[in-house]
Write a structure and sequence with these properties.
Four copies of one chain form a homotetramer. With about 375 residues, chain A is α+β, with helices and mostly antiparallel strands. Chain A has three domains: about 110 residues, 60s Ribosomal Protein L30, Chain: A (2-Layer Sandwich), CATH 3.30.1330; about 150 residues, Cyanuric acid hydrolase/Barbiturase, RU B (60s Ribosomal Protein L30, Chain: A, 2-Layer Sandwich); about 110 residues, 60s Ribosomal Protein L30, Chain: A. Helix content of chain A is about 25%, strand content about 30%. Chain A has eight helices and 14 strands. A four-stranded mixed beta sheet of chain A has the order 1-4-2-3. In chain A, a hairpin with a 2-residue loop joins β11 and β12. The first copy, chain A, is globular and about 55 Å long. Chains in contact: A-B, A-C, A-D, B-C, B-D, C-D. Chains C and D meet through β12 and α8 of C and β12 and α8 of D.
Chain lengths: ~375, ~375, ~375, ~375
Amino acid sequence: MRAQRVELFVCPTATPADTAGLQKLVDSGKIKPDTLVALVGKTEGTGFHDDWGRVWADVALRDWTSKFLGVPVDEVAKHVIFVLSGGCPGVITPHIVAITREWIEVPDKDVEVGKDKRMVVGRAGSDPIAPEEVGRMGQIRKVAEATRHAMTDAGLTDPKDVHLVMVKVPGLTTSSISDAESRRQTVVSHDLTFGPEGAGAYANDAAALGVAMALGEVPESKLSDDVVRRDWDLYSEVAMTSSGGEKRHGEVVVFGNAASSRSAVRIGHAVTRDFIDAEGIRDALRSAGLSFSNGTPSPEELTPLVHVFAKSVIPGSDRIRGQRITLLDDADAYQIGKALGGMLVASVTGRTTNYVSGGERNSHQGPPGGNIVAAVVRAEG
Amino acid sequence: MRAQRVELFVCPTATPADTAGLQKLVDSGKIKPDTLVALVGKTEGTGFHDDWGRVWADVALRDWTSKFLGVPVDEVAKHVIFVLSGGCPGVITPHIVAITREWIEVPDKDVEVGKDKRMVVGRAGSDPIAPEEVGRMGQIRKVAEATRHAMTDAGLTDPKDVHLVMVKVPGLTTSSISDAESRRQTVVSHDLTFGPEGAGAYANDAAALGVAMALGEVPESKLSDDVVRRDWDLYSEVAMTSSGGEKRHGEVVVFGNAASSRSAVRIGHAVTRDFIDAEGIRDALRSAGLSFSNGTPSPEELTPLVHVFAKSVIPGSDRIRGQRITLLDDADAYQIGKALGGMLVASVTGRTTNYVSGGERNSHQGPPGGNIVAAVVRAEG
Amino acid sequence: MRAQRVELFVCPTATPADTAGLQKLVDSGKIKPDTLVALVGKTEGTGFHDDWGRVWADVALRDWTSKFLGVPVDEVAKHVIFVLSGGCPGVITPHIVAITREWIEVPDKDVEVGKDKRMVVGRAGSDPIAPEEVGRMGQIRKVAEATRHAMTDAGLTDPKDVHLVMVKVPGLTTSSISDAESRRQTVVSHDLTFGPEGAGAYANDAAALGVAMALGEVPESKLSDDVVRRDWDLYSEVAMTSSGGEKRHGEVVVFGNAASSRSAVRIGHAVTRDFIDAEGIRDALRSAGLSFSNGTPSPEELTPLVHVFAKSVIPGSDRIRGQRITLLDDADAYQIGKALGGMLVASVTGRTTNYVSGGERNSHQGPPGGNIVAAVVRAEG
Amino acid sequence: MRAQRVELFVCPTATPADTAGLQKLVDSGKIKPDTLVALVGKTEGTGFHDDWGRVWADVALRDWTSKFLGVPVDEVAKHVIFVLSGGCPGVITPHIVAITREWIEVPDKDVEVGKDKRMVVGRAGSDPIAPEEVGRMGQIRKVAEATRHAMTDAGLTDPKDVHLVMVKVPGLTTSSISDAESRRQTVVSHDLTFGPEGAGAYANDAAALGVAMALGEVPESKLSDDVVRRDWDLYSEVAMTSSGGEKRHGEVVVFGNAASSRSAVRIGHAVTRDFIDAEGIRDALRSAGLSFSNGTPSPEELTPLVHVFAKSVIPGSDRIRGQRITLLDDADAYQIGKALGGMLVASVTGRTTNYVSGGERNSHQGPPGGNIVAAVVRAEG
């Protein structure tokens, strides 16, 4: 049978348009046109709607990938998925992670059941999502279906083996709202921001619920338009989602572990129970198989750690462990919230090259007040 | 002989003008007019120059203290030292710590040498500091002298027993600069901010070097006007300083441990080696006598922890452990830098009621890139 | 018959808690407990949700007024209406306007019809507004009714004589939303901000439509829940509204001109046609009876100008006179939008003590893209 | 003799990297490789140090120009001067102005003295400016000399004919400071920002004084290192300067009017007397020959206006016409100050495509509190 060999390469970037690290990987033969499946990264800049650092990075990376693959820029997305999260406030180093997947022929007898599971990755696109479906059941169902297809592509059947699902879905725009309303359809919000009632927040959260539905984290019977951004007890522990107005359909990348995998790396995940819960970060490292003798890993014990992907959603409550915080009132909460997640992760991983996205207030990505953390660790064998 | 019994009471505040927690302490007999020596706290608001939350808190607290002590508002400062640090971005709970000092008569024979040392506190004012001395040797020497007097007031002779020195000094104002220049004196800077060349930063840093000189952390021979904010290898590990234009002389509060003390609490300190060094926070807890079996304290093991006082000065370099961060370029660096210190402390202490001040770039308060942390722990006996 | 004599006194303030200017007016006999009807002002600070400058000003002013009137603080609002708008970015001088109304007995024969009309003021409270009514028809109708009552109190019958209606209404809070939902009622938004879909914006805009309904600017037949913050062609040209969670009912102050008035001042208003329309400001001055020979008033010609009240709502479109602006994407748009209104007014009035509130995006307060401006001018006779 | 024909083309841009407007000018034959002398524009983004919008625009424009001229990117600066000012807060439309200069052979007899003067442009580079000269007399003298050369290139001899001098000079960087200090030289500041004592501010202001010296606005005898950013009574009324660490020498572009010019456009300038002085903007229009019958130009009368170049330096005082403003205390002052200048200009010119740079506090570019405004108008003949 065919088995996957997945690898991650972390490239710090010196400017938004810096592709030198990627080129070096190409030059050394570590990534090839037919193995590169995703570029996931943090781009420097404000992280706001008009963050030109992110836009420039996107343009420069697609241009580079187009040349690398030898395909036109507008076909790049068919081959490589881009997940660029804007804003590196605080102690988050701008970086790009190149994720490669190689297919290896393995004799069937060598694929032992019960063997040490290793990392696999799978991708799928969803059916087109209409503006009136954004942030609602239509989107939830389409993302759920795409998640199932991506699991199949990854060779995963048990949701327990899934540790991270990155999703990109269409958001709403002035023109897509006009389109829907001209057809006498309503939309979930006229607020185009990622604020509490913003279309961006609804799109991200419906996508998270779609993942939760596909993985059985939330039964379909509990889902409806009315629960999105209302019933915070419904959530996924592995979905990291983003949305952009320009897209027409969703894209899903599933990361998990499989016995058949021939990867040198393993993925795990956990959730923090609240905004200051460093133990949740350590749990994610443990879940990925990092072992540390003491309560917190030493620099040496952190050597096998390849990368951490974390959300830093701001809690909806103004209390942490019973005490009031003023973050919800803070005009800079969006940036500060993201920065704080970066510190929580860096203070445990001992490094600043962590993928941390967030800053929005409340989400179905992770439990109320807590956040999702996934870690990739190099296995010993 | 007379021995000190020092106690700390942490009161979270619901608004900048909230004195309910203090009043409750008074009503229950825990603080009395002749035992209250200092009010140290974090006030909510932006933390910027025009932060009205801090100003309102200052007015309301002085008013309350005036009534409590039965003295006019403008004499309150003779009895109680106020250290209010503005800005609670992120996970810093607005709060006031009331510090009391009671004098107890102890038979001389009961003051054993070598006994478990406990917390003491001492205060002193400096000679008036002229505008042309601010940020220069004049200020350094006067703060050093006041620090020695405050040690004497605390009953401390060995600098090793000093774990925290809070200092407030005059800054520069438009009018004090005019005054100096009318007398043909120069001033250290015309920039009234806390920016890299700001008078506020110079005043704070000269105060820190004054403490370092008094404690022998830096020999006087190495000190001159030219080293202030230039030679970062000269620093104090225990000085937390602030400055305000309206003051004429410096105020110093020394916190340490003494064998003669009859306090139930003990103080300790450490420094972080860089901006993400959670181990430095844990070292401060250990220094104060908190014991934890594993690498990081559990919630139960944190019970004896009374309070943490920490600085969060932004590193002067754009590298942390070899990787680039963009914090120095960030327009919100002042708030984000303070918020990150709050997270580093809270993720270890498991609580948000920590005193964390900072946000300025580079300082003689702590080593280059690192920060000062002091902790107070309730002793068992 | 009884006739009004209305006067306005503009007091710049040195700090949020500065009541010295008001006290001076009292000491000189210009304002008396039974003539003070409203305090309207701009307070320094960020203007954000947690702007402690505004809160401190509110507390200090109510305290001062309580002492001035000799009534308890919680009864002050029955006698004097407070409209404090937070945030003085740019060229807006923090200030308080004391508005007084004296009743004078005038022989009926002296009240000539067709005489030069002068300023009058009227006030009224609305019926309690339930959380589920906020931002909806319930609120619109109750504000409309209160506006009619305030007109009666002012002695005005013709809507054309109304030039400014200041309204304060309840907003939504976490607890009022819970209250409504516990009674199985829905609320207009769960977003408690003044963002595009925020409850604050809905409350303000429904209040503006209530004024528009009372004055016949919008026929009741065109009003419904669905048009609020949707149909921007419905608007008032005289309503300036604000909302706060703590209130239970609305308060309305109507400013207009009446033939019976014995005031020395006259009010007028106009709207700007877009965000850079200085001519709209000049039109308001002309409407209030300020005469200037040339296209723009000279400093001397501005002498009779007493005060300007202006909104500075950010346009919903990213185009001004055909060219793109990036204000809608700006993270600081709220403050910049308010600051720009301050400049537009100050560059015409030649002074910075103007009341300018705003910063929200789109509103039924004024036409799409334009803003409301009211001016008070001292009449010659 | 050879005579100049200068033209300006204003191209609004849709994104930082948008060169479509320039390409259209090329396609229609309006700009040619040998006539393009400068690209001056406003780029969207924050305008801060790490504004990637400005950086991306710079990269994209140099790349486009390189292809247009057929020269390598690193030689583009020899042919075309780029002045890109970052940040379009408020009502400033992102745009690029292409400035072309054509040389025409004109019979000497046709160059009448006393004829209607029209626009000319001249350029010159300065000698290399060492780090220790930045912000000091060394830089002042070198910029003065380059200004004289640029006047010669423009064909101007009388300083009264000079209406705008755009200058770019080297700033300081960490490495250039190290270089200077390794040679035992001091530098003007270690603060690399544009704050009150920042190296960027010193570099800009010394450049302005260099222009003032060349034009005789300030006699050389009054100039010394000590007056830079100290004696605000010394200033230029036509210098708009900027600095960047990467440069080694200064670049100067002089704009003025000459009788020999065959341009269709004319330039003029004025200064505002304070931050709200709309009359100063109108004076600049008048100076450029725009005629308007009334006090302020009507839309029709504005038709011949080609472009306005304005500074918006924040006043060093907290008073405008006797009243306090809080701008100096505002954390967003840099952006708000620039935005306010944009509004002052737009409210007079009736358009948003104005070049407005600024936001720094105090400058030798213009009188204390006031700002420089230059206008270009199409002449009738």
